[in-house]
Amino acid sequence: LGSLRERWCVALKPPGFAGAAAHPLPSLEATLTPFLPEGRSMSFPVKPERDAEGLVVVTTDDAMRKSFDETLRRGLVRCRYRLLADVASPGEIIGTAELVESGQLRAEGTDAETFPFELYSGPLACPSANIRTALYLVSARPSTKAARQVRRSFASAGAPVMFDPVYHPLYREASRSAKSLEDMTSAIPGSLTMQLFELEMPDPFRPWEMVHIAAPMPQEWLAIHPLAELEGDEDHACSADWLETSK
């Protein structure tokens, strides 16, 4: 949404990318800087989760950054995460009844915060591996801390996010040892299946209007969790007009 010629825009960050430049890691800042108008400075009001794909607000001047900071402070930015959870890896994880239906999931390690979630699809068997996955939509604050809490809470409830190198037992073991995923018969390679896919916030220039921004489900996920309504849908693939926006 928008472009770097304007005072703010929204980018879709690939998994594994940091927000600010973080050599030797790939980053949005390093990728977008060549397209930034001279005299502008780039910033990210919400530090994105590096492991996950997701929408990222980019500001290009100090006044707009302060405006977004105030909007966030007042709790006026709403977001939802799309995540693909492993609900039945053989011999490892058995998803609990807590996640069978939509409801509220309490944040691990805190007595205050809960995450409303919706079971969107599944559980479904993966066509190429002996696992079952479920697709969830989760409401949470737009922050790296909240995203981590969601990942940790789903893992504690018996449904870790697929390919999570921190909270999924199989992938945590692979990341901490010399084992390759090929040596672990119940693991398959891939990037973290968590995506900040939806943002709703006041228009910075017309604050009485709300802007709704949504990104499509990554095509790569369909190999693990096939959805009939999306398979073979070329229009669903990310392209120059990957965002759906409304006011």
UniProtKB/TrEMBL annotation:
Record's protein name: Uncharacterized protein
Looking up Gene3D superfamilies in the UniProt record yields: Pseudouridine synthase (3.30.2350.10)
Q: Which GO terms describe its biological process?
A: pseudouridine synthesis
| Single GO MF annotation | RNA binding
Source organism per UniProt: Effrenium voratum
Look up the domain of life of the source.
Answer: Eukaryota
